[in-house]
Every structure is written in structure tokens, then in C-alpha cells.
Amino acid sequence: MIGFLRGKLVAKAPPQLLIDVQGVGYEVEAPMTTFYDLPALGEDIRLFTHLVVREDAHILFAFSTEQERMMFRTLIKVNGVGPKMALTILSGLSAEEFHRCIQEHDSHALVRLPGVGKKTAERLIIEMRDRLPDLSESSATDVKVSADPESFAAANPSQEAISALCALGYKPQDAAKMVRAVASEDKRCEDIIRLALQGAVR
Fold this sequence. Notes:
Elements: E1 4-13, E2 16-21, E3 24-29, H1 32-35, E4 44-53, E5 58-63, H2 66-75, H3 83-92, H4 95-103, H5 107-111, H6 118-128, H7 157-167, H8 172-182, H9 189-200
Parallel strand pairs: 3-5
Antiparallel strand pairs: 1-2, 1-4, 2-3, 4-5
Helix pairs in contact: 2-3, 7-8, 7-9, 8-9
């Protein structure tokens, strides 16, 4: 099992990252909460990882904190919740927000996430009540590094944001609508994604 990666951030295209670890490029998938904390391209980075082995692929998921990885591992144990849905949940809600949804039986916030229907939301609340990691005791080690404001620059940040939301499970027309509601010329891609996701779960 690969517990973490330490190397240089080579490329990022939500939800995928490319990390150069001593000459070996690791492709990983990460939730948007991890993307928000990324340093500039070419900077050193350390991410916690979880390897998912399928018949047709080996997929490495990466997280900025141990807390996020714990939540991911807990989520994929729930019946009907796979790695992609777990990544979507972590992208749309912080660990603290998800914890609150479970404690307060707030299924309405959960069903606003793509791919999460009423039955899945109810199952999450029932099965996660006793599985939630203790957020107050979990390690909050992160990779926050002072990031270059232009580190996520792209020719078209809005289009990058739409692509990222589609990769998380939103329909193209819905993703475009979400981005149009918050995009502006001075916003970076990750800022647009963050605001779009915040608006989607309210």
C-alpha cells in the first residue's frame, strides 16, 4: 500500500494531479478540498494516498490531510458508495460539514451532490453515524504551502472549472450554469470551483 507521496507537483487538471517522485510520475485523483490547498506547479508537495484496485485499473487517490483520507476510507465502506461518489462528497462538503449533516440527519444537503439520491443520503446517515471518525482527534497534517496566485492559471478558468465539475459527476449544462453564476475575469479556476460547489449545496 502506498501511504503517501512526496515530490514535485507537475500538473493539475481537476480532479487529477501528476506528481514527480524522483523521476516517476504518479497520476492521482483528489477531491477539490485538496486542490484548494495546492502550491504552485513545480513546488514540493506531500499527499496522503489510498490505492483502489479494480479489475480494469489501479487508481491512486490523494488527500491533503489524514482527516480527509479517513473520511474517504469510511465512505467507501458504505453500501452503494464507491470511490468516485466518495470523492464527489468530499469535494462538495468539508469533513466538518459532512459530519454535521450526519449528526443532524440533514439529507437535503447530501442529495444536492451529484449522484446522491434520497435513498443513498438516508443510507449514508444511518451507516455513517457509528463510523464517523473523531474529527477532533484525527491528524490534521496538511500540505498547505504558500501558493503562487497564478499557479492555477489557465487559458480559460471557467472552462477548466466546468470540466472539473463534470468530472465530479455534474451534468455539463448544470456545471455550466453553476460556473456562470459565480465566474468573473479575475477569479482563478479553483476559486470558481469552490464558489460553484458552495452554491450547489446551499
